[in-house]
UniProtKB/TrEMBL annotation:
Annotated HTH araC/xylS-type domain residues: 174-271
Protein name: AraC family transcriptional regulator
InterPro entries: AraC-bd, AraC_XylS_family_regulators, Homeodomain-like_sf, HTH-like, HTH_AraC, HTH_AraC-typ_CS, RmlC-like_jellyroll
Record key words, sorted: Activator, DNA-binding, Transcription, Transcription regulation
Keyword Chaperone among UniProt keywords: no
Biological source species: Mesorhizobium helmanticense
Keyword DNA-binding: yes
Organism ancestry: Bacteria, Pseudomonadati, Pseudomonadota, Alphaproteobacteria, Hyphomicrobiales
GO molecular function, one term: sequence-specific DNA binding
Amino acid sequence: MHATETSRYWRHPCFPDLGLFKARFTRHRYELHTHPTYVIALITAGCERIRIGRRNVIAPAGTVAIVNPEEWHDGEQGTDEGWAYRTFYPTVPLMTALARELGRDRAPVFSREIIEDHHLASALAAAHEGSTSQDATRAEASLLAALGRLIVRHGDWNGRVGEVESAGWRRRFPVYEELIESRLGSPLDLQRLADATRVTRFQVIRDFKKTIGLTPAAYIRDRRLRRACLLIEEGLGLADAALAAGFADQSHLTRSFRAAHGMSPGMFRRAR
């Protein structure tokens, strides 16, 4: 018999742009998606199987999974019992500011997808629990301690290894990105992307596969979800946000949102 699946999303009382998520899943499977923020997930029980970028990794209880901003990732149970976890979504400006306070000159990059560090895990657990405390000083201090240890001990200050080489597909990809962003609320197809870069539809598919390892459709769905999140945060109703972001209707948005984020758009809106 499957255990009950639960999830909750809220904002940090001292850092309003920092989202936090707590969940237990047994059957839920995340589709590939991205975030504009970092994703720092402390696995508290069970085991999660994750694709991060082009790597497939296993995150057992006690480990910390790290996803850099804009990095594609998914997630599913890595064992029959599923997994439970506590997640932080710190923004790039927040992590950059903390890194500078710690003597670095830029935002951190994390090259290891899975971190085994008992002290970091304990600090993250304390910070996550502290975010719901009535004591604002405790909430702030515990978060800074946890993120500070993560940045200093595990940031890769030599840059990400394995940067892709410059090539035609890399020059074309910004054109695809710009066109998609400008037409999220309108129909998009491969031919339009091909026309914009004067290549074939087959080349468009190859370009996406080469650059991010996904199909154009998966990328467009992710961008529409990102647009919907922004519109909901700005106060637009769910139905209007769905249409403005290019979804067929609110139900279409809800299905896609839950598949990517493990929560409904309504839960996300209530945390505003």
